Amino acid sequence: MAGNVPEYSVSEISGAIRRTLEGNFGRVRVRGEITEFKRYPSGHLYFSLKDEGGKIAGVVWRGSVSRLGLAPENGLEIIATGKVSSYGERSSYQLIVERMEYAGEGALLARIERLRLKLAAEGLFDAARKRALPFLPDVIGIVTSAQGAVLHDIRTTVARRFPRRLLVWPVAVQGEGAAGQVAAAIAGFDAIDGRGAVPRPDVLIVARGGGSLEDLMAFNDEAVLRAVDACRIPLISAVGHETDTTLIDFVSDRRAPTPTAAAEMAVPARAELVADLAHRAARLTSGLARLTQTARLRLDRTAARMPDLPSLLATARMRVDDRGERLDRALPGLIERRRAALLATGRMMPSPLLLTGPGRARLDLVASHLLSGLRQALRDRRARTDRARLSPAPLAAMVRERRAHLNGLAGRLESLSPMAVLERGYVLVRDPSGVAVTRAADVRPGSRLELTFADGVTEVRAVRADSSQGQLDL
Amino acid sequence: MTEDLSQLSFEDALAQLEDIVRKLEGGQLRLQDAIASYERGAALRRHCESKLNEADARVQAIIQRADGALETKSMD
What we know:
Chain A: Keywords: Cytoplasm, Exonuclease, Hydrolase, Nuclease. The complex is a heterodimer. Chain A is of the alpha/beta class. Among the domains of chain A are: 11-103, CATH 2.40.50.140; 109-268, 3-Layer(aba) Sandwich (Rossmann fold), CATH 3.40.50.10550; 428-456, no CATH class. Chain A has helices spanning 10-25, 62-65, 104-122, 149-161, 178-191, 222-230, 248-251, 259-266, 270-305, 309-348, 352-387, 393-415, 418-423; strands at 27-39, 45-50, 55-60, 77-87, 92-102, 139-144, 165-170, 203-208, 235-239, 254-255, 428-430, 448-452, 457-461. The mean pLDDT of chain A is 86. By secondary structure, chain B is an alpha+beta fold. Chain B has a single domain (3-65), classed as Helix Hairpins (Orthogonal Bundle), CATH 1.10.287. The model of chain B has no long low-confidence stretch (mean pLDDT 83).
């Protein structure tokens, strides 16, 4: 069965296939869409290229990545340059890629559009995120190529309008690594705090001259766009010519059509400012002058309306003098007038005689009536007295009769006198208080008694008393 | 007048100056205020002029050292 069919070992056939592949194809350019893209820790990139009908595995060795020409990603339509080779251990063949290009403008634009939509959805292009440019920056940071017309245009424009301090951060603006350098420069400017030797810029210009779409791709790079978005310094983008629009123009704070225009945005024209300031200064001075003039005018006008103080004083003084004089004259005049009035009134007063006359006449009349009445009464009494004339005889007879009666009573009184009884030998006994003691029972032993005899009185003391028989101790 | 003008940006100083000019021209200020405003306006004007005069045209390139620190080199 073996016949003349050659026999290979596995290694031999693998090596033969490999030689055939490498020999027949040599360097190839393959167009396709990147898929299954994977970056390995080793630094190699693995992916597949596909189109409608097929798929081929590809790899970029670590050493080729930096010169690749673009950052591969899934969905990217590219033209890969490299060679076909096989991997004998796994019985697979693959494309060893050294360069990648975008597969035509359409693919490139589609990729840019995808990124634009993504960042727009994130809000990176929102008008609210735009920062206002400073009116007059002290330091302008410029991210561009150190060579070329762009930097020259910016420098001359700034020097012409308003010389300012320029800080240039030189970067590659196209080709491999450009995007990374631009992004690092923007972030680097933003990281300057101004406390060191390098001043912090007040505004940034990211600029590049015109070029093909591919040349401008660094300014469509997501890393650059995010660096612009994160930058806290107001940033002006000026990439390409007027008609070119790169995504950095969407995310920057201001978009300038050219680098020159960016410089004009960054600084005001000094000559205009000087003229404007002079104009304002003139207005300032004339404004104050007019104000003081107006104030002076008002002062003068008001002063003119102020009364003349000396003449006012003189008038007042005259009035005081006048009133003073009249005052001096007033009191004597008043007294005089009052005196005259008093006299006039006095003259009009009626005489007192006139007032008392009628009363007096009536008084006289009554007095005369009284006198005559009294006389009449006296006369009447005398007549009545005369009519009742008294006789002493009846009175004497009455006296005699009363005396005889008295004598009779005296004799009877004499006969009844205790003295007559005492003459007959009886004694009147009385206690010291003069009360008659008529009973022996009333005499207490030792008590003093007064005995009245016809010819006199003697005092005795009772020795004993007995109701039945009294005993007197003389 | 106690405010430190040196910290004031040209733009703010100019805006304040314009405001003072307008008020003075309006003539509604009291005289005392007008004079104070004028003095402030004059100071603002001097400040603006000095800002306009400090026109420094140095151009320097940033150089990043190996340790990451920045320094500048004149490009003239």
